[in-house]
Predict the structure.
Amino acid sequence: MRFTALKPFERYLPILDWGKTYNRDALTNDMVAAVIVTIMLIPQSLAYALLAGLPAEMGLYASILPLVAYAIFGTSRALAVGPVAVVSLMTAAAVGNLALQGTAEYAAAAITLAFLSGLILLIMGFFRLGFLANFLSHPVIAGFITASGIIIATSQLKHILGINASGHNLAELVHSIFTHLNEISIWTLIIGVTSTAFLFWVRKGLKPMLLNAGLKPRMAEILAKAGPVGAVVVTTLVTWMFGLQNHGVAIVGSVPQGLPPLTVPKFDADVWTSLFGSAVLISIIGFVESVSVAQTLAAKKRQRIVPDQELIGLGASNIAASVSGGYPVTGGFARSVVNFDAGAETPAAGAFTAIGIALAALALTPLLFFLPKATLAATIIVAVLSLVDFSILKTTWNYSKADFAAVAATILLTLGFGVETGVSAGVLLSIFLFLYRTSRPHIAEVGLVPGTEHFRNIERHKVETNPAILTIRVDENLYFANARFLEDYLYDRVVGDCDLKHVILMCSAVNDIDTSALESLEAINHRLQDMGITLHLSEVKGPVMDRLGRSHFLHDLTGKVFLSQFGAVKELSA
Amino acid sequence: MRFTALKPFERYLPILDWGKTYNRDALTNDMVAAVIVTIMLIPQSLAYALLAGLPAEMGLYASILPLVAYAIFGTSRALAVGPVAVVSLMTAAAVGNLALQGTAEYAAAAITLAFLSGLILLIMGFFRLGFLANFLSHPVIAGFITASGIIIATSQLKHILGINASGHNLAELVHSIFTHLNEISIWTLIIGVTSTAFLFWVRKGLKPMLLNAGLKPRMAEILAKAGPVGAVVVTTLVTWMFGLQNHGVAIVGSVPQGLPPLTVPKFDADVWTSLFGSAVLISIIGFVESVSVAQTLAAKKRQRIVPDQELIGLGASNIAASVSGGYPVTGGFARSVVNFDAGAETPAAGAFTAIGIALAALALTPLLFFLPKATLAATIIVAVLSLVDFSILKTTWNYSKADFAAVAATILLTLGFGVETGVSAGVLLSIFLFLYRTSRPHIAEVGLVPGTEHFRNIERHKVETNPAILTIRVDENLYFANARFLEDYLYDRVVGDCDLKHVILMCSAVNDIDTSALESLEAINHRLQDMGITLHLSEVKGPVMDRLGRSHFLHDLTGKVFLSQFGAVKELSA
C-alpha cells in the first residue's frame, strides 16, 4: 500500500532511489562514519568469529561483501550490517551440532547456514512475510537478549582464564569452567582482566574525561569508540615483546592475508535439513534485531524503512557472506547507533566500511598474529554485558503477568537449554497466553451514563438500566475459542430473570464473528426465542455487518440491529 | 464459578446429586430407553470393533463397564457412551502403527490406548482444561467428521466385496481395493449390498410406512431403530442355513461367551510414547463430540452439563474400558439422540444398557458365529454416510474465507494423510489464520453521526469531523503481533497533515494492551509530541485502564483519557 508509488525496480533496488540525490556532502559524511565504524568493526568482527567458533578471518570476510550487498538492497540509511554477538552465538549452537569446532566441516557448515538463512530471508521478502517477525513480542526479545548476553559473557570466561571449556547452556558452561579451573593461565588472566577493566572504563569514564580535557564532543566520542582498538594494539605489543605466547597466552596466530576467498555452500540434503530450523530462527531474530534498530534510527530523521525490503537486503547480505567465506550476518545494534551518530547519511557508508575492512584484510592481518584471544574475549564481554537488563522482569510483573511469564520462560529456558529452545518456547508461550485470554473474554453488563448517550459497565459506573432490557458488551472478537463461553455466560445470566424481554448484544468491541461464533449466535437466538426473549445487536462494525449480511443470521434474528446502543435502548424502552 | 455451590464430593460424583431424587417414574423411563439403546448397540459395538481392527467381543466389552463408570461420574442425563465410529477409526490408525491387526499385541495396544486416553481426560478434568477443546473450531470438526465418514465408508467396502484391502488414507484404501478387485466374493457382495440397501431403506422409508400402517409414532421409531438387528438376524440365519461361510463369506466366528475379562494396560515407556499423541487427539475429539451432543440434548430440557466434569466422566469410562478388555470409548451422537428420544431421564439409563449388553455377552455370543462381516460393514456404512456433509464448504466459502481454508485443509489432509494429520493441520491453520487476522487489524477513522453522540467510520457513514482532530478507532486488541502495524499506520496518516493538533485513539474495541503494544503507544506518544500533536485516549475499558494505571504511560501521555468519545471531541473542539 505504502510503497506502491515506487516502480518495481526501485522497490527492489533502493539504491536507485537514494543514489539519484547523492552528493558531495553526503559522501563526506558517509566516509567519516565509515572510518569510525571500521575502527570499531575490526576487533568486533574478529571477536565474534571467535565466539562463533570460527577462524578470525571469517569475521573480516563477513564484514566486506555483505555490507556492499546491503548498501544496494537495504532501505535503512544507518544500519551497520555484519557479524553480531547473538547471531554468532546461535551459529555456534547450530553448527556445533553438525561438526567439531576447528574442522573444515565446521566452517563449511557456517557458510551453508549463511546461505540458507539468506535464502529464507529472500523468500520471506518476496512473499512479504515480514509480519511473521511481529510474533516475537518485545518481552520475549528482551528476555532472549538478556539471557544470550549472560551465556555469551560466560562462554568468553574461558578465554579470560586461559582454559578449555564448552557448552551451549549456562549449566554446561559453568560446570565446564569449574572442572577446568586448575588449568588457569596467569598471564592470560592478567591480560584478560586488565583488558576488561580498561574497556569498562573506556565505556563509562573516558568520554567525560576527554570532554573535561577540552576535546570537542564528537572527537571525544570517536576516541571512546576506538578504545577496543587501543586494547588490541597494546596487548598485541605486550604479548609480542614478552613472548607471552610461550607462557600459556592463546593468540590468534596466523590469519591469511588477502581478500575473501570465493566459497560455495554445501548442497547436501542432510546438512540442509539439520540446519533448517536454526536458519529460520537466525533469520527471524536477525531480522527483528535489524528492523528495530533501523526503525528507531529512521524515526529520528523522519525517514521510513520498508520491512519487507529489509528482508531482501539482509537476505542478499547473507548470500554474499556465504559466497565470500563469511557466516550469518545481520544489523548490529551498537554499531548502527555509532554509524548514525557519526553522521552516516546513506547505505553508502556501509560500502565504505567494507572498503576499510578489505584494506585491513589486505594489510593488517599479519599484525594480528600476536593478538591474545583474551583481548577479544574482553571486548565481547564488555559489549554483551551492556545488553543484559533484567528490568523487563519487573516491568512486566507490574504490568502484565502473561508477559512476565513469557519473559521468565524465555530467560530460564535460554539459560537452561540454549537459545533456540528459549526463544521458541517464549514465542509459543506468548501466543498460547494470548489465545487463552481471548478464549475467556471480559464480558460486561452495561447501562446508560446519566446525561450522556454513553454506556458503561454497571459494576464500575453509576448508570441507568431497565429491568426489561439486558445489554451485554462482549470485550472480544467472537471466534471458535470463545463461542461456547458466550453461550454459557448468557444462559447463566438469563435463566430465572423473569422481567427480561430484550437482550442487546453491544458489539462495539467485536471485530470479527467467525463461523463457529455465528453458530453460537444462532443457537442463542433460538434459545432466547424459546424463552420469549428477543435478541438485538447494537454498534456492529461495518466489516462485521458485511459478513453477517452474507449469512442467514440477520434474517433469523428475532430482534433488530441498531446503529447505536443509545438508539437501541431508546426504541426498546418506548 | 457456576458450580461452586456444590460440595466437592458432589462436584466429582454427580450421581449423588441426581440419585437423591431418583424415583419409580425415572426408573421406568430409563429402563425403556436402555432396552432400545441395547438393541441398537449390540450390532454397532460389534461393527465398530471390526472397524478398529479388533475382535468383535471387544466392542461388547467396551459397552459394559465404561457405561457404568459414566453413569457414576458423568453429568449428561442422555449421553450414551460406548464405541463410536470416528474414535474406532482413530484407534485403528494409532494401533496399526504399533502392531499387526489380529495379533495379541494389537489388542493390548488398544487397551493401553484406552488407559492413556482415560488418564489424559482425567488430568484435563482435574486441572479444568476443558477449554482446550474450544480450539477445535466448528468448521474443523465438520470437515474432520465428513472426511472421516468417507474414509470409514471406503474402508468397509472390502467387507462388502469380500476382499482384502487396507490403508489409513483414501488413496491407499482405493488403490488397495482396486488391486484386490479380482478376489471379489459374489455371496459376500450379495449379502453386503442387500444389507446396505435394506438399512438405507429402514432409515428413510420404514418409519413412514409403519406410521401409515397405523402404528404409534414411538413404536414406529423403536422398530425403525431395530432395523440393523433385523439385518443381523436374517443374514446370520441365511449364512447358517446355506453354509455360505464355505462359499467365501467372511463370518464373525467364535466369540467368547461370558463377562469381560480383567485386563491390564501395558506399562511400557516405548508403547506409551508412540501412543501418546494419538491418545491426546482421541481424548480431545471424543470429548468435543460428547460435549456437543450432551449440550444440545441438555438444552432441550433446560438442563446443564459441566464440561470439566464430563472430562472426568469420560476419563473414568476409558479407564474402565482398559481394565475390562475394551478400547477407547466416548459419547456417540446417534445413540445419544435415540437414548434421549426414548425417554432416558438420568445416567442410570446407561447403567441399565450395560446390564443389557452384559446379558448379551453372556447369552447371545454363540448365536453370532455365523454373522457375516458384510452385514456389520453395511451398518457402519449406513451410519457414517449420514455424517458426510459437504455443505460446510459452501457455508464457509460464503461467510468466511479463513474458515473455508480451515475446512478445506482439514478435509483434504484427512483424506490424503489420515485423521491425525488432518485434524492437527485444521487446528493449527485456524489458529494461524486468527492470529494473522488480528496482526493486521481493521482501523477506521471516525466522525460524529449528526444528531447523536455516536461516532462511526468516515468512509461508511455521513459524519462530522474537525480538521484539527483525528480520531482513530483500532478494531483489535493491541498486542505484540499488531503493535508495529498501528505505529506504521499512524505515522503514515499523520505525516504531512499540517492542520492536525490532536489525535484521539478511540479504544472501544481495544480489550487488552500488552507490554509490546504499550511500548508502541509510548513511542507514538513521543513521536507525535515531537510533531506538536497531542495524543488522547477515549472510551478505554475498565480492565485496560486498570492495567495502564500500573505503568508510566498515563503519566507521560501528552493528552487526556476521556470517558466518552463525544466528551473528548466536545472538549477538544472548544
Remarks:
- Chain A touches chain B through 75 residues (CB under 8 Å).
